[in-house]
C-alpha cells in the first residue's frame, strides 16, 4: 500500500511537471526567441546560435537544471528559415531530453516589416529514474510494467511580426499534447505535455546617440494553471551592452500569494559575431528563503554568410 501511495505521488509530480516545468522558463527568453516561437527561425539573417544553461533554486537538492542549444539560419536569398534545437531538462527523478526541427517562412509586409510563420516538429525522451526513489518493496505490483523511458512526438506553431525596432509574436507549444506513456496505472494519463500559449512583444526606443531603451513582455498560459507574465526593461549602451531588470509573476504556491521574482540581466556583445549573457532570479516569496536564487548563463553567436555592413544592429 505504501508503494502505491508513493507511485501516485510520483505520477502527480509528473503531471505537475507537465504543467510547470516541461518547458523551462528561461529569464533571457528575449535573447533566444526561437526557443518559444518557431517563427523566429532565420529572422537574424545570419547563422545564429544560442547556448544556455539554467540552474534553478540553487542550494536545494535535486533542483531543476536545464541546458538548451538553438541554431537557425535563413536559406540562401529565399524567405525560408530553418532551425535545430536540442535541450535537456532535469527536475528530481524526471528527465526530458529532446530535439526539434523548425521550418519558417518570412513574408515581407513592406520595406522594413516581415511576418513569419513557423512550424516545429519535436521528439522528446521522457525518463524517470526509479532507482533514485526508495521503495519498501521493489517487486510491488504498482511498479511492475512501468516504463522508465519513452520517446514521444510533438509539434509547435508560431507567428512572428518584426521590424528593426519592434517585434510581436504568438505561439503555441505541444499541439499534440502527447502522453508520457510511462505507466498503465490509473491516473497515468494525466502525465502528458499540456498545450502552452505564448505572447511576446518588445520595442527599442532611442534615448540618445549612445543609449536605447528596450521594454519587453512575455505572457504564458497553460490549461488549469495560473497565467505567467514577465515584464522586462533594458538599457542598451552603444548598441553593445544590455543591462536590465524584470519582474515575473509565477505559479501560485499557497493561499497567500504568487511565487513572484525579480530578475536582473546583462548581455555584452564582445564582437559583431559573439555575445555573452547572464541573469539572476531573486524570489520574493517564501520559496526564496530555501534557495540562493536561479542563475542563467548564455553564449550566442551570429555568423554571416557574406561580408556586409549591417544598416542596423540586431536588437532581437
Task: Provide the descriptors you would attach to this structure in a database record.
single chain, 316 residues, mainly beta, two-stranded antiparallel sheet, 17 strands, 50% strand, globular, disordered N terminus
Describe this structure in words.
With 316 residues, the chain is mainly beta. Helices cover 6% and strands 50% of the residues. The chain is built from one helix and 17 strands. The chain has one helix at residues 2-20; strands at 47-55, 65-74, 80-91, 94-108, 114-128, 149-163, 166-173, 196-203, 205-206, 211-222, 228-237, 241-249, 252-254, 257-258, 261-269, 274-283, 294-303. The strands form two sheets. A 14-stranded antiparallel beta barrel has the order 1-2-3-4-5-6-7-8-10-11-12-15-16-17. The radius of gyration is 21 Å and the shape is globular. It starts with a helix and ends in a 13-residue tail after the last strand.
Residue runs with pLDDT of under 50 for 5 or more positions: 1-20
Radius of gyration: 21 Å
How much helix, percentage-wise, in residues? under 10%
The coarse silhouette is globular
Amino acid at each position: 500500500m505504501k508503494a502505491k501511495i508513493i507511485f501516485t505521488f510520483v505520477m502527480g509530480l509528473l503531471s505537475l511537471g507537465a504543467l510547470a516545468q516541461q518547458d523551462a522558463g528561461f529569464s533571457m527568453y528575449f535573447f533566444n526567441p526561437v526557443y518559444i516561437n518557431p517563427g523566429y527561425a532565420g529572422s537574424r539573417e545570419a547563422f545564429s546560435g544560442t547556448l544556455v544553461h539554467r540552474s534553478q533554486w540553487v542550494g536545494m537538492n535535486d533542483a531543476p537544471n536545464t541546458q538548451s542549444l538553438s541554431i537557425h539560419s535563413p536559406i540562401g536569398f529565399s524567405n525560408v528559415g530553418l532551425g535545430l534545437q536540442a535541450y535537456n531538462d532535469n527536475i528530481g527523478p524526471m528527465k526530458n531530453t529532446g530535439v526539434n526541427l523548425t521550418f519558417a517562412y518570412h513574408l515581407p509586409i513592406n520595406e522594413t516589416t516581415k511576418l513569419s510563420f513557423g512550424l516545429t516538429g519535436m521528439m522528446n525522451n521522457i525518463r524517470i529514474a526509479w532507482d533514485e526513489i526508495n521503495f519498501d518493496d521493489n517487486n510491488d505490483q504498482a511498479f511492475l510494467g512501468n516504463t522508465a523511458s519513452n520517446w514521444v512526438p510533438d509539434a509547435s506553431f508560431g507567428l512572428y511580426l518584426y521590424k528593426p525596432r519592434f517585434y510581436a509574436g504568438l505561439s503555441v507549444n505541444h499541439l499534440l499534447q502527447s502522453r508520457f506513456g510511462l505507466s498503465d496505472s490509473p491516473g497515468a494519463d494525466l502525465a502528458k505535455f499540456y498545450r502552452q500559449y505564448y505572447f511576446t512583444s518588445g520595442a527599442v526606443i532611442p534615448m540618445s546617440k549612445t543609449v536605447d531603451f528596450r521594454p519587453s513582455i512575455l505572457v504564458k498560459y497553460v490549461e488549469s494553471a495560473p497565467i505567467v507574465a514577465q515584464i522586462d526593461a533594458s538599457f542598451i549602451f552603444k548598441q553593445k551592452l544590455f543591462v536590465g531588470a524584470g519582474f515575473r509573476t509565477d505559479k501560485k504556491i499557497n493561499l497567500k500569494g504568487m511565487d513572484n521574482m525579480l530578475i536582473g540581466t546583462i548581455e555584452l556583445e564582445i564582437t559583431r559575431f559573439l555575445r555573452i549573457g547572464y541573469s539572476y532570479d531573486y524570489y520574493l516569496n517564501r520559496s526564496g528563503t530555501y534557495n540562493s536564487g536561479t542563475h542563467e548563463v548564455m553564449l550566442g553567436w551570429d555568423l554571416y554568410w557574406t561580408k556586409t555592413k549591417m544598416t542596423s544592429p540586431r536588437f532581437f
